[in-house]
Write a structure and sequence with these properties.
Elements: H1 8-31, H2 38-51, E1 55-56, E2 68-72, E3 75-77, E4 92-101, E5 104-113, H3 119-136, H4 145-157, E6 162-163, E7 169-171, E8 178-182, E9 199-202, E10 205-207, E11 213-215, E12 222-224, E13 230-232, E14 235-238, E15 245-246
Antiparallel strand pairs: 1-4, 2-4, 3-12, 4-5, 6-10, 7-8, 7-9, 9-14, 10-13, 11-12, 14-15
Helix pairs in contact: 1-2, 3-4
Bound molecules: 2-amino-4-trifluoromethylsulfanyl-butyric acid and cobalt (II) ion.
Length: 249
């Protein structure tokens, strides 16, 4: 497994790719409201990405038909936007988006409340978000990749939530998915030693119930097997010799 180390010039481009994607997520977060179709979310995101002169990297990726993945409630990730699928009060919606700026990719996800949601749903969103921040504490030169995985696992497990095992985080750069894979659960081995200049997409996907998921017949949408709610939180980050840098916030 070869993990690429980005040069200073590449890091500048990754920073800009990340900064622009953060703006997209901020706008999408503000726009989310009951009655909006998941297709409208996708259209708004794609318009912004293209407005920056960037390319949506998810569109046509392995045949994925949209720019933004919109996953509602029991949908974990890769929900396909639809004109006839409307967000309603009480839903939670995970938005996963990415773009290419001058050949460099960024990737980030947020889970939002639609109107007023249950305290249980709110807690799931908050724990999922915090698990990313627990993981990134370990994303320092000299630590090992699976220190990140173990930290996410240890934090999430306290709450009895299910950690999705079939999908993982990843390296990112001139491709959306590069080595290494980054599991969100503890590993037997330590994984590669982290070095300054690695850019990683850390993305815990957490279920209120069990960790098991199913892949739907549309070829994309991943859902919880037990029908429980699921949340997703992701940022593209840079490993440095000091504190890690979050590129998509
Ligand atoms: N953010 C996801 C990932 O990290 C989404 C990519 S799947 C796509 O893999 F097909 F929608 F692009
Ligand atoms: Co990703």
């Amino acid at each position: 497994m070869a993990v690429s180390i980005k040069s200073a010039r590449e890091i500048e481009l990754m920073r800009e790719a990340g900064r622009l994607l953060a703006l997209v997520h901020d706008e999408l977060g503000k726009a989310i409201e009951p009655g909006m179709s998941t297709k409208e979310v996708d259209e708004l995101g794609e318009k912004m990405i293209r407005g920056f002169g960037c390319v949506p990297n998810f569109l046509h990726y392995n045949g994925y038909p949209a720019s933004i993945c919109v996953s509602v409630n029991n949908e974990v990730v890769h929900g396909i936007p639809r004109k006839d699928r409307f967000l309603k009060e009480g839903d939670i919606v995970s938005l996963d988006a990415g773009l290419i700026y001058k050949g460099y990719h960024s990737d980030a996800a947020r889970t939002h409340a639609v109107g007023k949601i249950s305290p249980e749903a709110q807690k799931l969103i908050e724990v999922t978000r915090q698990s990313f921040f627990e993981g990134i504490k370990m994303a320092k030169a000299g630590y090992h990749l699976h220190d990140i995985s173990a930290a996410i696992d240890a934090y999430v497990s306290q709450f009895g939530y299910g950690i999705v095992r079939d999908l993982v985080g990843h390296g990112i750069g001139t491709s959306l998915h590069e080595d290494p894979q980054i599991p969100n659960f503890a590993q037997k081995r330590r994984g590669v030693r982290l070095q300054a200049g690695m850019t990683l997409a850390i993305e815990p996907m957490i279920n209120a119930g069990g960790w098991e998921v199913d892949f739907q017949k549309d070829g994309w949408t991943v859902v919880t097997r037990d029908g429980s709610l699921s949340a997703h939180y992701e940022n593209t980050i840079l490993v440095t010799d000091g504190e890690p840098e979050i590129l998509t916030l």
